[in-house]
Structure formats: structure tokens, C-alpha cells
Amino acid sequence: MSETAPPIRVVLVDDHRTVLRGLEWLINTEPAMRVCGTATNLEDARRLCVEHKPHVLVLDLDLGAQSGAEAIPEFARLTSVLILTGIRDATLHHAAVAAGARGVVPKEAEPDTILKAIRKVNDGEIWLDRVGMQKVFSLLNSRATAAPRTDDPAVAALTPREREIIRVLSANAGAPAKRIASLLDISEHTLRNHLSSIYSKVGVANRLGLYEFAQKHRLATT
Questions:
Q1: What are the percentages of helix, strand and coil residues in the chain, rounded to 5?
Q2: Vertex 99: Cα angle to 92 and 215 (nearest 5)
Q3: Residue-range domain boundaries for the chain
Q4: In CA terms, which of 77, 80, 127, 158 is 20 to 30 Å from 103?
């Protein structure tokens, strides 16, 4: 008998309680997901992340007196961040993903779209259209070019296999994990294990952070 996978644990952060209630109801109607906490401010969101260790944090960019955008790098080190926002400025969306969020969904999106985005982000994918991804990678490349290239002990700690994985990821930026695993002739589970080790060694939270690191240290082509 096959075991049922545990539900995706979700924490919701929005300064409007009505939005929180609606999202909580929507997500809890999905058997494969469960809201384990809601917050209207960053302090409570941090506490919930520590207490419940959610798989996905659904975060609004505008929290009234606080900026959810500024907290993205911090939360991205703890969990997978999905932005759900009413802000329509695409530049801010791209900057949010470059900062560590794994996707952006507009608040007016269909309920099924929100649920699908949570699933994809939990699976390690990026939820952003192709044009948006191109802009994000362009932004990361600009940062890497402008940053000084100094010797980094993290680079020396990478194994030859890990360097190969970084090269394949960089050459196929934005490709789903299934495609990357196929190119490396490994399973998605093995790929995730390798990536966890790589992220820990180089101090990044996700594939976008790794892409920027690879560009900065010229690991994408060597």
C-alpha cells in the first residue's frame, strides 16, 4: 500500500484579514495543502516560519507600514517564497524573484492558478512567465558583472560533479527540475539532494541565487 504524501504546509502573510481568511479557506479545501499559520506583519511571519517550518510562504509585497519585498532574502533562506500581490509593476515582480522569491501571482488570479503556483513552487520550480524569467536573469547577470570577483573558499569546496550540475543549470536557466535531472542522467530526488549541498556550500537559497553565484565566479562555462 502506497503512503500518502504529507500536505504542503503553507504560511500566509497579508495585512488584510479578509484576504487571509479567503486564502486560508481556499488552500484548506485542497487535500494536499494545509495552512499552518497566518500573519499580518513580518514579526509574526518570522515566528510562524520558525515554529511550523512551512514548505511555502505566501507573502504580499505591501504590508501597509512594512515592506514584504525587503524581507524576501531573509524568508528565502527559511522556505520557498511565493509572492501574491495586487501590485502590477512587472519590474517589482522581477526584482522580487531576483531577491529570492520563487514566483509571483497577482491577487486577481483564478483560485486554481494560486493553488498550482503553490504546488510548483513547493516542487522547486519558478512561477514566472518566460519574458519575466529573461528579465530576471538579465538583472542577475548585471549584478554579477558589476560585482568584484574575489577568491571564494566556497568555490574550492565544490566537487567536480557539483560544478557540472552548476554548468548545466546555468546553460538551461529556467528549465524545470525534471529537464535538468534528465540532462544530468539522475533522478529529480538526487538532483534536489545535490542542490541542497551546493546551496549550503555557496550560501544561496535557490536556483536563482546559484545562477548569480555562477555568473559572478565564472562557473557557468568552466
A1: 55, 15, 30
A2: 115
A3: 8-128, 134-216
A4: 158
Q: How far is CA 142 from CA 58, 145, 146, 161, in A?
A: 28, 5, 6, 27
pLDDT at 131: 47
pTM: 0.66
Architecture of the domain made up of 8-128: 3-Layer(aba) Sandwich (3.40)
Could you give the CA distance from residue 53 to residue 51 in angstroms, rounded to a whole number? 6
Distance between CA atoms of residues 160 and 165, nearest Å: 9
**What residues are paired with 56 via a beta bridge?**
10, 80
pLDDT of 137: 58
Q: Would you place residue 171 in the very low, low, confident or very high pLDDT band (cuts 50, 70, 90)? A: confident
Structural Rg of the chain based on CA atoms: 18
CATH of domain 134-216: 1.10.10.10
pLDDT at 112 over 90: yes
